[in-house]
Amino acid sequence: MLLAAGRGERMRPLTDHTPKPLLTVGGHSLIERHIRKLAAAGFERIIINHAHLGEQIVSSIGDGSRWSVEITYSHEHQALETAGGIANALGLIACAAFAVVNCDVYSEYDYAGLKSAAEQLVDDPGRVAHLVLVDNPTHNPMGDFALDKGMVVPADTGKLTFSGLAAYHRNLFAPVMPGEKKPLAPLLVAEVKAGRVTGEHYRGIWTDVGTPERLESLNDYLRRKGS
C-alpha cells in the first residue's frame, strides 16, 4: 500500500494545486518512483489511498499496467491519517500481511526487504509489524523508536527515526473502524511495549520530502547522481 492521502501543508504552496505524491524529483514523481521500486521487488498489486486532489493521482498513475502491476485506489473524503487510511483500505487487501510505504519519502532501500518482512509476519503470529528505522534527521533529532537485536523496544534514549517504510499484519488495525480517523503511532507504541514489533536499521540514503527546501535538496542530489 502506498500512502498518498496527506494534504502536504508544509509543502505549500506547491501542494495547493498538485498532490504531494505527484511532485517531481529527478524527472519522476515521488509516487512513480515508489511504484517502480515495488514492481522491481516483485510486488504485483498496489493499493493507493488518496484524498486531497486525489483525482490527479488516479489520472496520472492509472491502473499500473505500464509498470506491470495492478493498482487499486482507496478514496478518502477527508484524510484519515495513517492507521485510519490503512484500516479503511483493508477490504481491498487480500493478504494477511503487506508492505506500506509513505509516498512523501525518498530512499534507496531495496523494497525486496519489505516483501520478505511481510512474508515473515504471516509466518509468525506473535509479530504484527516490522519497521525500517533510519538515523535521526535534523528535523527529528530525538527519534521515534529504539532497536535492540532486531526488536523495536521502548527507550528514552538511543532512538532512531521511523522511515515510513514498514510491513504490517492486518491484525494491527483491528481496533480501527473503517472510515475512522486514526494516527498510527499509538497502535505501534502499544505493540512495541507488548514485544510484537521487529525492526531494522537502514543506514543508506533516505529523506522525508516534507518541505520545499528538502524537495530542492533532493533534486540537487539526484541531479548530481544522474538519476
Percentage beta strand: 25-35%
The biggest beta sheet reads: 7 strands, mixed
Summed up, the domain count is 1
The total beta strand count reads 13
- Which runs of at least 5 residues are low in confidence (pLDDT < 50)? none
CATH architecture term: Alpha-Beta Complex
* CATH fold annotation: Spore Coat Polysaccharide Biosynthesis Protein SpsA, Chain A
* CATH evolutionary superfamily: Spore Coat Polysaccharide Biosynthesis Protein SpsA, Chain A
User: How would you write the strand order of the largest sheet?
Assistant: 5-4-1-6-11-8-12
What does the radius of gyration come to? Answer: 17 Å
**Share of helical residues:** 25-40%
Any key phrases for this structure?
227 residues; alpha/beta; Spore Coat Polysaccharide Biosynthesis Protein SpsA, Chain A; two-stranded antiparallel sheet; 28% helix
Walk me through what this model shows:
With 227 residues, the chain is of the alpha/beta class. It has one domain (2-225): Spore Coat Polysaccharide Biosynthesis Protein SpsA, Chain A. Helices cover 28% and strands 26% of the residues. The chain has 6 helices and 13 strands. The strands form 4 sheets. It has a 7-stranded mixed beta sheet with strand order 5-4-1-6-11-8-12, with helices on both faces. The chain has a two-stranded antiparallel sheet with strand order 2-3. Strands 7-13 form a two-stranded antiparallel ribbon. Helix 2 links the parallel strand 4 and strand 5 (70-75). The chain starts with a strand and ends with a helix.
